[in-house]
């Protein structure tokens, strides 16, 4: 299959309910710094096992931010399918092909913003930024409203992979942005801020803490 190079459009209007029902899992595998290849080697057979549920969308190794991490993004048709796959991992003594080289494993569940279409895989990077915003309690509705206004225009200039909110734990959103290079990332963000197209109206006021990782796709990642 030819890799896609154009993102799905974002208009600010809600997507069909079946797309809103999609659930994402972002798994973080921690490993010793020299064991990245060994950690990645276990992921592909795990997510492509005949017993697996869901679809592998992306797999990245961190380059900036917290090092020694592998991030795995998968999509599921609904919460029931995600739950079945989560139970498969919990019941395994080697989830994600985990071996002695892994030091920690965290699986987190997310729902997409209601106007954001399903993740489209393809060649959009290779530099991916994963931003994690911890919001104040009750800050999610205002955040979604602000993004609904501002994201469609930014998406036309600087395409988004996904923005999604946590279904458990603190109120958080995760956003994933692909860039052709780190220089492109700096230039785009500078221009968007200078022109007033970003950040979203009311968005920064809801953020308590923000972190950012730069990561590169593994050879088997559908998002490259």
TrEMBL record:
InterPro entries registered for this protein in UniProt: Dimeric_a/b-barrel, NIPSNAP, NipSnap_domain
Q: Which residues form the NIPSNAP domain?
A: 48-92, 128-222
Name this polypeptide is given: NIPSNAP family protein
Per the UniProt record, the lineage of the source organism begins with: Bacteria, Bacillati, Actinomycetota, Actinomycetes, Kitasatosporales
Family assignment from sequence similarity: Belongs to the NipSnap family.
């Amino acid at each position: 299959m030819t890799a896609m190079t154009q993102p799905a459009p974002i208009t600010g209007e809600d997507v069909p309910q079946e797309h809103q029902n999609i659930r994402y899992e972002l798994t973080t595998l921690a490993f010793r710094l020299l064991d990245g290849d060994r950690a990645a080697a276990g992921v592909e057979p795990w997510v492509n096992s005949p017993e697996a549920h869901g679809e592998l969308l992306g797999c990245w190794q961190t380059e900036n931010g917290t090092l020694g991490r592998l991030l795995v993004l998968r999509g599921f048709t609904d919460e029931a399918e995600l739950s079945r796959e989560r139970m498969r991992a919990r019941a395994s003594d080697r989830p994600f092909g985990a071996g002695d080289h892994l030091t920690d494993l965290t699986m987190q569940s997310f729902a997409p913003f209601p106007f954001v279409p399903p993740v489209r895989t393809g060649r959009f990077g290779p530099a991916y930024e994963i931003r994690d915003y911890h919001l104040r309690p009750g800050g999610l509705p205002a955040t979604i409203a602000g993004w609904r206004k501002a994201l469609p225009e930014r998406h036309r200039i600087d395409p988004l992979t996904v923005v999604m909110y946590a279904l458990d734990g603190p109120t958080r959103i995760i956003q994933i942005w692909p860039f052709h290079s780190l220089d492109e990332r700096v230039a785009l963000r500078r221009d968007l801020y200078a022109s007033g197209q970003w950040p979203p109206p009311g968005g920064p006021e809801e953020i308590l803490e923000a972190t950012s990782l730069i990561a590169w796709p593994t050879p088997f990642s559908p998002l490259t």
